[in-house]
UniProtKB/TrEMBL annotation:
Location(s) in or outside the cell: Membrane
UniProt source species: Smithornis capensis
Presence of keyword DNA repair: no
Primary location group: membrane
Name of this chain's protein: ascorbate ferrireductase (transmembrane)
Cofactors that this protein relies on: heme b
Alphabetic keyword roster: Electron transport, Heme, Iron, Membrane, Metal-binding, Transmembrane, Transmembrane helix, Transport
Pfam family, one: Cytochrom_B561
PANTHER family in the cross-refs: OS05G0565100 PROTEIN (PTHR15422), TRANSMEMBRANE REDUCTASE CYB561D2 (PTHR15422:SF21)
EC number: 7.2.1.3
Coiled-coil regions listed in the entry: none
Stretch forming the signal peptide: none
Transmembrane segments: 17-38, 44-67, 87-106, 118-143, 164-184, 190-210
Taxonomy of the source species: Eukaryota, Metazoa, Chordata, Craniata, Vertebrata
Amino acid sequence: MALTAETESRLYRSLRVAAGTAAHLVALGFPAAVAVLARPGSSLFSWHPLLMALAFSFLMTEALLIFSPETSLLRSFSRKVRVRAHWALQLLALLCALLGLGIITYNKHLNGKSHFVTWHGLTGLLAVLYAGGQCAGGVLLLYPKLMKNWTLAKLKLYHATSGLVGYLLGCASLMLGMCSLWFTTTVTGASWYLAMLCPLLTSLVIMNQVSNAYLYRKRSQH
């Protein structure tokens, strides 16, 4: 029996709520698991995986989910409040990422190891630099008059699209980090595959959220 448009819409919304809820749980659970594995404070290196997991798995994911119409933790608040919370979380994410980058760079220097010679290192560096540029670009949304030839709607669209690229870079860095010797010797078997699914799940949820926002803007223009 064919589903009605209303039933399909309700089912789709339920799936989005379930996926968004799972993303919230993963965003918090993944850094918690990394903290248990890394035991921050046990060594200088131990802070690197925790800070990067906090930056790209927890803070950045929550910063983007704030605008989810179904699962935002602040959906009952005004858009102005959500934008400010987004800014605060993104700045915290950037700070954690910069600290994580600084720690691993200094740790390699102490141990006489080469810098940024692996795909994980290069992707991580690019993700951190991109996050810095994305935060700087967000200033244009606070002061749109600086870009006289661009409408606010276009600035929002480009900021969301470029933000998605930056987020995917961060998730790619996390996944490559899980291929490192430290992680693969600590996490094995089914647990490793489960860990790899974490950034993949949140990436899919965020991509769906951004694409739906884009389609909504396109429809509202016609």
